[in-house]
Design goal:
CATH topology of the domain at 300-478 in chain A: Rossmann fold
Largest sheet of chain B: 7 strands, mixed
Strand content of chain B: 25-35%
Number of strands of chain B: 33
Number of helices of chain B: 17
CATH class of the largest domain in chain B: Alpha Beta
Structural class of chain A: alpha/beta
Strand order of the largest sheet of chain A: 9-7-6-3-2-1-23
Oligomer: heterodimer
Helix content of chain A: 25-40%
Largest interface: A-B, 84 and 81 residues
Largest sheet of chain A: 7 strands, mixed
């Protein structure tokens, strides 16, 4: 029950696909927040492996197909997480489906015994994403059979030295310490097992770990099932805020109210690519205090997002009208849903006959799932439920035969129904696994075709294996919000009013309070891989005492200092994160075994006066020296010896003794 | 601090559920139902008792609706749109989705079929539902500064919930209707073990204990199967929601297994639409149904088709679901008129029918003729099968829930008075929990839990967490040592003026009071007899006895004298003293001991023993002293 709190950032994260990873120590417990995989580093592998080390690879010059590693892909976990003793982790909090992709590595480890908390929807979508990954990986292996018996050659230092600098940095990290994070993929059984071990929560469901930590998952808006966390223990409150979107087009929006006025707010989203564009422009904001509704119901952000979607839709329709096909390799469920939504109301599209395919092992289940989770989607989708319509329009598209879901590119049904031009949604956005690879090879020289990729993926490395010289296909790169915009962090903090806000180091200088007089928020910054110890609060713990125990109190009023004191004896229990003292029935209410305590030095004349009142006579001897002695001569002879810190009572009979004391 | 429970409806009756509970000043209305048995103003709860002035928005903090049945939600549009309540209303997602269907259906039947004056319009229903905030199970919702509510799964119908409400330290649960056993499509009620002051529970089946539902389902299926095999038609009058889906799943499954080809029909678009809701809300059904959804949504019934009015007199067997459930009018009555005269046909009846309906007439006895109105009479020759499974918990379930939650008080609603009295007796006798069953418009006032808030010092908290191991002795060979860790928190509670109390460890008290601790000791010096042969005749009185062995021998001798006392085991022997707890006894060598009260003349046959102790061991010290006084000391060897 200590009040010390420590924060260690293990990974800053890379946006939506790999959220940051932190370890938090509080109340004597160790909490791991998120366990992601860095899937963007898949791009170091060639999508079509040949023999290893063929050709004349050189460490210089631009990366091309020959520079990539031709081997069975491994996956990059958070390297520094491996330095932690798995058994020392007490709690794992997962805040988005992507935040649990690395979890099977942890749950299958020996000694792992932590309790994992994740929202129901995130667990479901997380499992679907894991299975997707496992199946595509298996497909890859089946196509290009590997001998996995030996340690991969690409991990040997001589081989790593030969790689081009950007690839080397991806593999080893900026500081060159991340090689240990690479792991061969887990199995489907590991993923299944992992999800079985988690405790699934609803939004705003209170859960209690060990009677001490009260935790709540609050919708963050960035994805279905994604959440921010609040933790409460012995009356202290912490909020953990990660990638959040104030008004989401598909997931339940940012729950702001429950994050307000916490003791500590940890904001863990670092500055990165999608911030860069808007870094300098408008950090200034007007000096009027920000209002919650204006921040959350941000119409301009919403309409910007809609414009972007509209633009993508128009590009898609233009491409198909010209007879080209569209490839949308994408991992973000929210974008798929919103694009489908937009396409279903786009008149040019609905009037055409171009089919849409979603090709992924989890596609059919994901589509079905999104229509049965009204509790997890945004308000405008919920209204669909109340008016008796399907939550998402894709259900109608599926019914009308415009949209079909297939588990794989070679599934017989797809081959039978295949039509071009068509629109294909598929994983994987790194362009290394899954149907994206063959489709890109098929379409890359067609000038009418369109590839829609996400901003932030290093296009040069991603497209490297696809013969850039012949690349005639149009490429549309879009960027979508997956986090709080930089300019909104300050107003958000002003609304949430934590006592202390802890931010990543790179946000220093970016978060400014204009009117410092109106805010009492103190700021602190943490950096990667350094343990940050939060100043412990001066307040003492809050405690509840049951009223029946209080009614047994025997108060003693101390006149001099205006204090009332009473002894207290009971059972201390932790109930829902709050300590509570209950009375114990088996104990006698007043217990004589406890020694009385005495304070101060008795004032002898007053003592004598009191004694005389009780019928005891005595005299004071020795005016000023120490010890001073009171001689009692009636009813029996006795001596009271008074020193500064102690007195000694000597009397022949117990009765007298009791009276004096 | 108190809880007041005002029962506006469903007090000693079934119908128009409505309970207004005030917890520490916060007022919540649980359910806002309508009584189906009345057509006058008795159909609504007497809202004037909430606020004589009629300002209901100010008088209530919120309304909570547990499920979509009309006896729980029926009066809501009236209360919000006609009476003017505009505060928050909470219900689960399915309840919010399905309630308007029920309300609209009821309104239509009332206005169009019975030609009654409208109580509320379609627009009323729509604008009422707009005010509803949907909640998810277990989601903790904060209302105002200190009211928290949370829904728990209740079974019964889709989206039915029990609600937990908490204000400060006081907490209650209102169950609504619930079912403690899973049925065909819904799971059993589930709730956490909560600390409750009050549990308000339904008691429809307060005295009934039911057997397994499996046999009752089989009876139903056999009756239906027999009828269609004989070429008969089966009419299943039912409400659009809940029972219809349950029976439909049952039949669909049975049809599949038995490979039956007889058509199953739904009467109206309403139920088809309802099925759509069920499909979207599949996460609110039972675990088994949810699991099967991955492959196929179980509410996509394979064998069910739409029915058209023109098909009523088509030849051949069929099964038809038709609304309303109690054959009180509408399509089910129309079909009943046509099918009742044939002996080969079958009509099933729900478990409960309101008096005055055809269903109620069929239930009471076996009528051969039913007078519909003064011109119409129906010949009833068909078979009647009464469904005996109900989505309510039975008496055992209620007792289980009460026992599980162990609230301080129980209030029974939604039941029949005599049965409630029996259940009350049972709860009080078997569980020792006080129980009430107020009638409508009666109020029960109960004390509420209140914890005193204080702050605790870290030293106190740490001391409380110290294990307090007690050795219980050797038990068996398998479990040789037994310990008890019986932690007791001890501290001092300090109040300064009217500030919040502070709990500290007693060691911290002196610094808090800015006074140094003052030890109070007791001392007593008394003579002990020395045996005659050891008298130190050769020594002048007061002179130090032979040292060190002499003193030690005297101490040992004292010890020997005490050896028969019960404290013997605890005696610690020091170099020149004995110590039991805080009582320390030593041979007093001083000529003038200040603690030697009274006669201080040294005598050769006396040795003085000086004792010191603290107040907690007063009794012990006195006991030791009296024992020592009676000892005659002897030295093992009288040294020369």
């Amino acid at each position: 029950m200590t009040t010390v709190m420590e924060l260690t950032c293990l990974s800053r994260g890379k946006g939506y696909y790999s959220p940051p990873c932190h370890v938090l120590r509080l109340g004597g417990f160790t909490l791991l927040v998120d366990c992601p995989l860095d899937l963007s580093s898949l791009s170091v592998f060639a999508p079509v492996p040949g023999g290893f080390g063929n050709g004349d690879r050189s460490a210089e010059g631009p990366v091309d197909a020959t520079g990539l590693i031709r081997a069975e892909p491994w996956y990059k976990t958070v390297a520094t997480l491996h330095l932690w003793d798995v058994s020392s982790i007490d709690v794992v909090l997962i805040s988005s489906p992507m935040g649990m992709l690395g979890l099977p590595f942890l749950t299958r480890a020996d000694g792992f015994s932590a309790k994992v908390y994740v929202t129901e929807a995130a667990a479901k979508l997380g499992l679907l994403a894991m299975n997707d990954l496992v199946l595509q990986h298996r497909e890859f292996r089946e196509f290009y059979s590997f001998d996995d018996s030996r340690f991969p050659r690409w991990m040997e230092w001589e081989e790593l030295e030969c790689l081009s600098p950007p690839l080397k940095e991806t593999i080893l990290g900026v500081e060159g310490i991340e090689l240990g994070g690479w792991m061969p993929l887990y199995s489907a059984a590991d993923a299944e097992d992992c999800v079985k071990k988690v405790q699934k929560l609803r939004y705003a469901e209170e859960t209690c770990y060990n009677g001490t930590l009260m935790m709540k998952a609050l919708s963050s808006g960035s994805e279905i099932g994604a959440c921010n966390w609040t933790i409460e223990w012995i009356g202290r409150t912490v909020a953990l805020v990660t990638g959040s979107i104030f008004s989401s087009g598909h997931a339940l929006g940012f729950d702001c109210q429950a994050l307000q006025s916490k003791d500590v707010l940890v904001y863990s989203e670092s500055l990165s690519i999608d911030h860069v564009g808007s870094t300098e422009d408008d950090i200034t904001h007007d000096s009027s205090p920000p209002r919650l509704d204006s921040l959350v119901d941000d119409a301009s952000a919403r309409s910007e997002e809609e414009e972007r979607l509209n633009f993508i839709c128009s590009c898609i329709t233009r491409a198909t009208e010209a007879g080209g096909s569209v490839l949308i390799p994408i991992g973000r469920l929210g974008i798929i849903l919103q694009l489908l939504e937009q396409l279903s109301v786009c008149s040019e599209f609905t009037s055409s006959k171009v089919p849409m395919y979603i090709i992924s092992p989890a596609a059919a289940e994901t589509l079905a799932y999104t229509n049965v989770i009204p509790e997890w989607v945004c308000k405008q989708r919920q209204e669909k439920l109340f008016s008796g319509e399907p939550l998402f329009a894709h259900q109608e598209l599926v019914k009308g035969g415009r949209l079909r879901a297939y588990p794989a590119l070679y599934s017989p049904e797809l081959l039978r129904n295949w039509q071009e031009p068509c629109i294909v949604f598929c994983p994987h956005w790194s362009l290394r696994l899954g149907p994206a690879v063959p489709l890109l090879r098929r379409w890359h020289s067609d000038p009418n075709s369109l590839l829609v990729t996400e901003e932030g993926v290093d296009a040069q490395i991603a497209l490297a294996p696809f013969n850039i010289a012949e690349m005639k296909m149009k490429v549309l790169r879009y960027s979508f919000l997956s986090r709080i915009e930089l300019k909104k962090i300050t107003p958000l903090l002003e609304i949430l009013q934590p006592k202390l806000a802890v931010l990543p180091e790179d946000l220093k200088e970016k978060v400014l309070f204009l009117n410092t007089s109106s805010t009492s928020i103190s700021l602190a910054y943490y950096s990667l891989n350094e343990t940050f110890r939060l100043p412990s609060s001066k307040d003492s713990s809050k405690i509840d005492i049951s009223s029946d125990l209080v009614s047994q109190f025997q108060w003693k009023i101390l006149k001099e200092s205006n204090f009332s004191i009473s002894r207290l004896k009971g059972n201390l229990v932790m109930r829902n994160g709050r300590p509570l003292i209950l009375s114990r029935d088996e104990l006698p209410p007043s217990d004589n075994n406890i020694p009385l305590m005495h304070f101060g030095t008795p004032d002898l004349p007053r003592l004598l006066a009191r004694l005389t009142e009780m019928g005891i006579r005595g005299t004071i001897q020795g005016e000023s020296e120490c010890p001073r002695i009171v001689l009692i001569d009636y009813p029996e002879k006795a001596v009271i010896e008074v020193r500064k810190n102690s007195s000694c009572i000597s009397a022949p009979s117990e009765r007298l003794r009791c009276t004096i004391s | 601090m108190a809880i007041e429970c005002l029962v506006l409806g469903a007090g000693q009756e079934v119908g128009k559920s409505c309970v207004v509970v005030t917890i520490n000043g916060r007022r919540i209305m649980f359910d806002c139902g309508m009584h189906m048995g009345y057509l006058d103003r008795r159909r609504y709860p007497d809202f004037s008792r909430i606020s004589p002035s009629g300002d209901f928005t100010a008088a209530l903090d919120c309304i909570i609706i547990t499920h979509f049945h009309l006896d729980h939600v029926g009066a809501l549009p009236y209360f919000t749109e006609v009476c003017g309540y505009s505060g928050p209303i909470y219900m689960t997602y399915p309840t919010k989705a399905l309630s308007p269907l029920m309300l609209e259906d009821y309104r239509r039947v009332m206005v169009e079929r019975r030609g009654e004056e409208e109580q509320f319009t379609s627009e009323h229903i729509a604008s009422c539902m707009k005010k509803v905030v949907p909640v998810d199970l277990k989601q903790t919702v904060q209302i105002g500064s200190d009211l928290f509510i949370r829904a728990y799964y209740a079974g019964h119908v889709l989206g039915a919930a029990m609600f937990h409400a908490k204000v400060g330290d006081a907490a209650i649960v209102y169950t609504g209707d619930y079912n403690m056993t899973p049925d065909r499509h819904l799971g059993a009620a589930q709730i956490d073990r909560l600390q409750l002051d009050l549990l308000i529970t339904e008691s429809t089946y307060a005295t009934t204990v039911r057997d397994s539902r499996y046999t009752r389902e089989r009876e139903f299926l056999t009756a239906v199967h027999k009828c269609v095999e004989g070429g008969g038609k089966v009419l299943i009058p039912t409400f659009a929601l809940g029972r219809a889906q349950e029976l439909c799943m049952l039949l669909d499954d049975y049809w599949e297994r038995m490979n039956l080809k007889v058509p199953v029909y739904f009467s109206a678009g309403l139920t088809i639409q309802a099925n759509m809701y069920y499909k979207m809300l599949i996460n609110w059904t039972s675990q088994k149904v949810k699991e099967s959804y991955a492959t196929r949504n179980p509410f996509d019934f394979k064998n069910v088709r739409n029915f058209d009015r023109s098909m009523i007199n088509d030849p051949g067997p069929c099964v038809l679901f038709a609304t309303p459930g109690m054959i009180s009018g509408g399509f089910s009555l129309e079909v009943f008129k046509n099918w009742a005269p044939s002996e080969s046909n079958l009509v099933t009846l729900p478990g409960y029918c309101v008096a005055g309906t055809v269903g109620h007439k069929l239930m009471s006895g076996k009528p051969t003729k039913i007078d519909l109105d003064k011109d119409t009479q129906i010949d009833v020759r068909c078979q009647i099968h009464q469904l005996s499974f109900s989505p309510h918990t039975d008496a055992k379930g209620i007792m289980d829930l009460v026992k599980f939650l162990s609230p301080k008080h129980v209030v029974l609603v939604h039941g029949e008075k005599p049965k409630m009295a029996t259940l009350k007796g049972k709860i009080e006798a078997e569980l020792g929990i006080s129980c009430y069953y107020p009638a409508n418009n009666e109020m029960v006032t109960l004390p509420s839990t209140h914890f005193i808030k204080a702050s605790a010092s870290d030293v106190f908290v740490r001391s409380s967490l110290c294990p307090n191991l007690q050795f219980l002795g050797k038990n068996t060979d398998d479990n040789p040592w037994q310990f008890k860790d019986d932690r007791v928190s001890q501290g001092v509670c300090v109040m300064k003026g009217n500030e919040e109390g502070r709990v500290i460890h007693q060691g911290e008290l002196s610094s808090l009071l800015r006074q140094e601790a003052h030890d109070v000791k007791f001392a007593f010096c008394f003579p002990v007899q020395l045996s005659s042969e050891n008298r130190w005749t050769g020594h002048p009185p007061g002179e130090t006895p032979p040292c060190p062995s002499g003193t030690c021998s005297l101490v040992l001798s004292l010890l020997a004298g005490l050896s028969s006392s019960p404290v013997q085991e605890k005696i610690q022997v020091g170099e020149a003293s004995l110590q039991v707890e805080s009582v320390r006894a030593s041979i007093c060598a001083r000529e003038q001991c200040p603690y030697r009260v009274g006669d201080s003349q040294r005598k050769p046959e006396l040795v003085y023993v000086c004792c010191e102790w603290t107040s907690k061991d007063s009794e012990l010290a006195w006991d030791v002293i009296s024992r020592m006084k009676s000892v005659v000391l002897t030295l093992p060897c009288s040294d020369s």
